[in-house]
Specification:
Helices cover 46% and strands 13% of the residues. The chain has 16 helices and twelve strands. Helix 2 crosses helix 10, helix 11 runs parallel beside helix 14 and helix 15 packs across helix 16. The structure holds 5-phosphoarabinonic acid.
Length: 462
């Protein structure tokens, strides 16, 4: 199981001004945490609670259908192209970057064991989209359109461009190159998928985008590129079982949530940095940033009071950002809680040859790059503690399906518990809607005419 070490947030290590008395805080919040965990588990099946993502580890039917489809199309496509944005893309990106061989898309088909390359088009930059279309052969591409709402302008515009191109190249047969992941009933894409006769997968009710990585949103692309989705499911289930423990002393998600909450509200650490010491985990920070920001950044609490809460997530990468951000983390404002992610065993061990022995870099010879990376993680953590900066470390024995699933699921539960501590709704995103509506207005969507007028006058004023 993955582990959390939080001793470097303790006042015993970093002093009273910036640290917390861990044991007494755990005792003080023990009952509240117990109630939160019990309630989350009780409410997870209830419609309208947006907690059904807590059941995704038990959805054997989805796993079966995904595997069946993946084996049906095996060998037919050179590329998977995922069209999606936000929660419909970030989980897929994080997991495939972590688990596929590095530089997957540059490997030969043989080196990829016959599995296709995978591309996530999660932005609407016209140059990048056109660039991708220049390098992939659409005829040999399976396009997975992913959108919960079925109407997101970015995803739908990409889909419209690709559908048009595919149809021109393949005629009616183009449908075999499209698979849709969307809501079971609502949304424009659901309607179109039914009309056009696409193969579809369902994003279950009450599973929001940023909590959807273990639905078909993630599982389908993972299976298509040969990842072991049964191991992913095992990882979620084992973590779910561990996190059902209502005792904060035994529950790492509850510990992570409470520490973030206390550090923010009592110690002014309103920036949450995630810093994996593994390039393969770089996109886990991107995924987490969205999860944390959209879930916890809220104007009103559950009582309707204006609170404007939410720690700001920041992405960093060890060791790269030691040469970029650590100066600020050590000596700048003491307003951050840093979570390191550490990997004990890398798949490969790279030895540094014993050369240049009589120079200033001779000490590196005979060691491994692995030792160097973890030595840097340790040194950074200790140096930060010397500066009284709070840090936590999540440790994975290795990067595989089982551990990655545990990590992501643990962070989802941590976010849900943190939401309850802040007393906000961690499952809506009203602050995103305003700009979406303005975009609809600007692009001439019917029903948004008044907003368009209003917006045009505001645009000319700023
Ligand atoms: O977490 C969320 O709900 C959002 O980030 C969505 O995933 C994002 O806005 C994309 O929405 P949709 O999946 O409806 O296209």
């Amino acid at each position: 199981m993955i582990r959390l070490n939080c001793k470097n947030v303790s006042s015993l290590v970093i002093g009273n001004e910036h640290g917390i008395e861990l044991e007494s805080m755990f005792l003080e919040y023990r009952e509240q945490i117990k109630n939160i965990i019990t309630e989350l588990n009780q409410k997870k099946d209830k419609p309208g609670q947006w907690l059904r993502w807590m059941n995704l580890g038990y959805s054997e039917e989805t796993v079966w259908y995904v595997k069946e489809f993946a084996s049906m199309v095996e060998g037919r496509f050179d590329n998977i192209l995922v069209l999606g944005i936000g929660g419909s893309a970030l989980g897929g990106l994080a997991v495939t970057e972590a688990l596929l061989k590095p530089y997957w898309n540059l490997l030969t088909k043989e080196q990829r064991n016959g599995y296709p390359r995978i591309f996530f088009l999660d932005n609407i930059d016209p140059d990048v989209m056109d660039g991708l279309l220049q390098v992939i052969d659409l005829k040999k591409t399976l396009v997975n359109v992913i959108t919960k709402s079925g109407s997101t302008a970015e995803t739908m515009s990409q889909y419209m461009i690709i559908k048009d191109l595919l149809e021109k190249e393949l005629g009616d047969d183009y449908r075999k190159n499209v698979v849709v992941t969307t809501d079971q009933r609502v949304g424009v894409l659901r309607q179109l998928a039914d009309q056009e006769g696409y193969k579809t997968f369902v994003i279950p009710d009450d599973v929001g985008g940023r909590y959807s990585v273990f639905s078909a949103v993630g599982l389908l692309p993972f299976a298509l590129v040969g990842l072991d989705i049964s191991m992913i499911i095992n990882g979620i289930k084992d973590m779910d079982l561990a996190l059902k423990n209502t005792d904060i002393f035994e529950n790492i998600a509850a510990q992570g949530a409470l520490i973030h909450y206390l550090m923010d509200t009592k110690k002014g650490k309103n920036i949450a940095v995630m810093m994996p010491y593994s390039s393969k985990l770089k996109y886990v920070s991107d995924w987490f940033a969205q999860l944390w920001a959209e879930s916890l950044g809220k104007e009103f609490n559950r009582n309707g009071e204006k609170v404007n809460v939410g720690p700001t997530p920041v992405k960093a990468l060890g060791a790269t950002d030691q040469h970029s951000q650590i100066q600020l983390y050590n000596e700048g404002p003491n307003n951050k809680l840093i979570t390191f992610i550490r990997v004990n065993e890398f798949e490969k061990t790279l030895e540094i040859p014993k050369i240049f022995e009589y120079t200033g870099i001779g000490y590196l010879g005979g060691k491994t790059i692995n030792d160097l990376l973890n030595a840097e993680a340790d040194s950074t953590r200790v140096a930060l503690a010397d500066y009284s900066r709070p840090t936590m470390t999540i440790t994975l024995d290795k990067i595989d399906e089982y551990n990655i699933a545990q990590l992501l699921y643990m962070l989802e539960i941590q976010t849900a518990i943190a939401g309850e501590l802040y007393n906000i709704n961690a499952f809506d995103q009203p602050g995103v809607e305003q700009a979406k509506n303005y975009t609809y207005a600007l692009m001439g969507r019917a029903g948004y005419e008044d907003s368009a007028e209003n917006l045009k006058s505001k645009l000319s004023a700023v």
